[in-house]
Amino acid sequence: MVDIQEYLNQHYPQEERKNIIKLKLGGIGLTGELDLSDFINLRELDLSEAKINDFGTLIVQTPSAYDKYIPNHINFSFKTLRFANNIEVINLMNAKGNYQDLEYLPLDNLKKFHCHLNNYKEILKPYDYDLYAWKLDNYTDLVEGMDNLDNCIAELNKIIEKDQQWINQVNRNPRHGNWRQKYVKTICSYPEYEYRNAEAQLIRKGIKIALLERKRNQLEQEKKKQWTTNAEIELVRLRKQNEFLKQQLGYYQEQPPK
User: Fold this and answer.
1) How far apart are CA 224 and CA 243, in angstroms?
2) Which of 48, 72, 147, 188 gives 30 a disulfide partner, CB atoms 3.0 to 4.6 angstroms apart?
């Protein structure tokens, strides 16, 4: 096993890292803490111990006489990618090790997030593998532009409405056309037998809508509390102003006429 930072130092000199757009580190026997904070222009990151062929079938790589394949066992925090806003593809298929802080992964340009046979598959499944919806529900403060409650509620409503339209369309015509054509792709990928099954996706989308509606209701309650608090603060301010005006009026009434 080779320390992963030593491997990066040998193959990717410090001064060249800002120019690297594709990094493949799977199956070469790496260990230790992975820090990618210098790869600021990275577009594709492959840490997988498996791959998908052109037909969408999962292939778990195994050692062979012709392939010097050694699994990785690394610790990786997505925090080190928080400035890599160009990231488009991340492959964690069957990746071994400890992967943390997914909430810090930039989503601006992300198109594919392969997570089958990885812990994140179960985390994202209730959100129909929608990484953005998961982050919006659980880490709202880390989503750009969502520091305003109105913006966040509007964004949740947009996702809920879109998924509800999809559900209504399928329910209106349950036997019309090919189920596969009704599948709406997300940036996350999962086994073909599962994402080709529109009935299973109906269940996932229903759960996702319920989770996002709960989040929206929580934010609306928080918004009402803010309104109440602001109204109470304004009421206190007006009362103090009223008392001050009364005092001023009393002072002028006590003054003798000139």
Assistant:
1) 28
2) 72
Alpha-carbon distance 205 to 164, whole Å? 8
Residue 121 is encoded by which pair of tokens?
């598959």
pTM: 0.73
Domain ranges for the chain: 1-117, 120-258
Q: What are phi and psi of 68, to 5 degrees?
A: -80, 75
Percent of the chain with pLDDT over 70: 78
- The per-residue pLDDT for 48 is 82
Print burial letters for 54-79: b (CB count within 10 Å at least 16), e (below 16). Answer: eeeebeebeeeeeeeeebbebebbbb
Contacts of residue 136, Cβ cutoff 8 Å, sequence gap at least 6: 143, 146, 152, 155, 156, 159, 212, 215
CA 73 distance to own-chain centroid: 24
Strand order in the sheet with 44-46: 22-24, 44-46, 89-91, 112-114, 188-189
Q: At what angle do helices 198-254 and 149-172 cross, to 10 degrees?
A: 150
Q: Which helix (H) or strand (E) holds 114?
A: strand 112-114
- The set of residues, in sequence order, having a beta carbon less than 8 Å from that of 164 and lying 6+ positions away, is 209
Q: What is the dihedral of CA 176, 178, 182, 188, to 10 degrees?
A: 160
Secondary element (H or E) of residue 64:
none
Dig out the tokens for 148 from the structure: 């305003």
Buried b (16+ CB within 10 A) or exposed e, 111-132: ebbbbbbbebbeebbbbbbbbe
Res 70 pLDDT > 90: no
